[in-house]
Design goal:
Blueprint: H1 9-18, H2 22-31, E1 51-54, E2 59-66, E3 86-90, E4 94-101, E5 110-113, H3 114-119, E6 146-152, E7 157-162, E8 174-180, E9 187-189, H4 193-197
Parallel strand pairs: 2-4, 3-8
Antiparallel strand pairs: 1-2, 3-9, 4-6, 5-7, 7-8
Bound molecules: copper (II) ion (CU).
The site of copper (II) ion has 7 residues, from loops.
Length: 198
């Protein structure tokens, strides 16, 4: 498993400890689900793989789950929101995306420029790279579905994997996608632990 990034179970437990309000946690204990969304208990998601790659083929597979946990009211991908973490991918690699929505709330995924993702209320349905979105990302999104799409990261720059559902991305439902020329391998980068503890 040299080329895959695995989040250790311990880190997941720590992450879970910091996410969600106490009241939401108490509610979750009573009802078996949180207020924000239907989320699998963290213990069910063991050793999630967020990235796999083949450097020789210049291909990377990314696994992006909306509402991975309760952080940012469920508006997170893989537990990360507000572009505090994300992916770094070498220029001209093929990117194969598997998107999952772990919530009953509609969410979607679209690649747009980072500055648009941070401020635009409605991202529309035209991705920056051809094919880089789930179907109809700005309308109903996808609910409890797995969607796959792929694109070629053929321009350097700062982009986002953003939720296209109106207002979500501006409210933090986005992670970064930085495409860099002199990168040897693709990476999934979590926010520093210190930041998560704030
Ligand atoms: Cu969303």
């Amino acid at each position: 498993m040299k080329n895959s990034y695995k989040l250790p179970t311990l880190a997941l437990s720590i992450l879970a400890g910091f996410t969600g309000l106490v009241t939401a946690d108490e509610e979750a204990k009573k009802t078996g689900e949180s207020k924000c969304c239907t989320v699998l208990p963290v213990s069910v998601i063991t050793n999630p793989v967020f990235i796999k790659q083949d450097a020789k083929k210049k291909e990377v597979e990314v696994f992006i789950t909306a509402t991975f946990d309760k952080s940012n009211y469920g508006m997170n991908f893989n537990g990360v929101s507000k572009s505090e973490g994300g992916y770094e991918i070498p220029l001209d690699w093929k990117v194969k995306v598997t998107f999952t929505n772990n919530s009953a709330v509609p969410h979607s995924l679209i690649v747009v420029e980072a500055d648009l993702a941070a401020r635009k209320i409605n991202l529309g349905d035209t991705p920056y790279f051809d094919g880089a979105n789930t179907p109809k990302p700005n309308t109903l999104g996808t609910t409890n579905k797995v969607e796959k799409f792929e694109f070629t990261a053929d321009e350097e720059g700062e982009y986002s994997f953003a939720c296209g559902f109106p207002t979500h991305s501006a409210n933090g439902h986005r992670i970064y996608l930085n495409i860099k020329k002199d990168l040897k391998e693709a990476k999934f980068i979590m926010p520093p632990a210190a930041k998560a503890a704030e």
